[in-house]
Design brief:
single chain, DUF421
Length: about 60
């Protein structure tokens, strides 16, 4: 289980140019230890192939 502080997560959101939390579709903790932020201003769904090897947790 990855322990990430709220400050670190907010920094990653800023790096991804997220302006509103409502834009965030998913945050993925990669096997490399990095964090990927998937976001969009539109109400688009994430293509399932992008999330194929990701285990979902809320």
């Amino acid at each position: 289980m990855a322990l990430v502080s709220q400050a670190d997560l907010m920094a990653k959101l800023r790096e991804a140019n997220v302006l509103q939390l409502s834009q965030v579709k998913a945050v993925v903790f990669e096997t490399t230890g990095d964090i990927s932020v998937l976001h969009s201003e539109h109400s688009m769904q994430i293509d399932s192939i992008i999330m194929d090897d990701v285990s979902l947790k809320s």
